[in-house]
């Protein structure tokens, strides 16, 4: 079986593979695409255990600022275009340290929300330090590219529940996902 994300578009199923999302995104941030891919694989089934969710009803709040993640959510959910995608730095889990603090995704669907956070072992300190460095040498750029490739492979080689912890789904009486 292919590793996919399945959603509905007006009741009709659509599936997405990582490679399809990468064609939309481009080549710059494969790790961000992989993180969003795994976060969606983890969260979406918890939002509606009876089947795929309607893509245009999904909301996304995240502390993750990467363009690869944004593009992956846009392709699958159309949340960016639909103004249902919010980067919210208040979601950062600073107690987890600079390496893990921003890998927080809160997805909402109808009356439920679920928050997923990265587990240890998928993002390393050197990657974060290099990615946040403003002026990198060509050698550092090469090292960062290698980190992106290695992280992407680690993420894609693992089932979503091994990559992302999920907090129990919570009801949202007003239909919003809050902060």
Folded structure, characterized:
By secondary structure, the chain is of the alpha+beta class. It is built from 6 helices and 8 strands; from the N terminus they run ββααβαβββαααββ. It has helices at 18-25, 30-47, 67-77, 125-132, 138-156, 160-163, and strands at residues 4-9, 12-17, 58-62, 85-87, 104-109, 112-118, 164-166, 170-171. Strands 3, 4, 5, 6, 7 and 8 form a 6-stranded mixed β-sheet that branches. The model has no long low-confidence stretch (mean pLDDT 93).
Keyword list:
6-stranded mixed sheet; 179 residues; 8 strands; 6 helices; two-stranded antiparallel ribbon; alpha+beta
Distance between the termini: 36 Å
The proportion of residues forming helix, as a percent range, comes to 25-40%
Unreliable spans: none
Determine the mean pLDDT. Answer: 93
Give the helix/strand layout:
Layout: E1 4-9, E2 12-17, H1 18-25, H2 30-47, E3 58-62, H3 67-77, E4 85-87, E5 104-109, E6 112-118, H4 125-132, H5 138-156, H6 160-163, E7 164-166, E8 170-171
Parallel strand pairs: 3-4
Antiparallel strand pairs: 1-2, 3-5, 5-6, 6-7, 6-8
How would you concisely characterize the structure shown here?
The protein has 179 residues and is an alpha+beta fold. 38% of the residues lie in helices and 21% in strands.
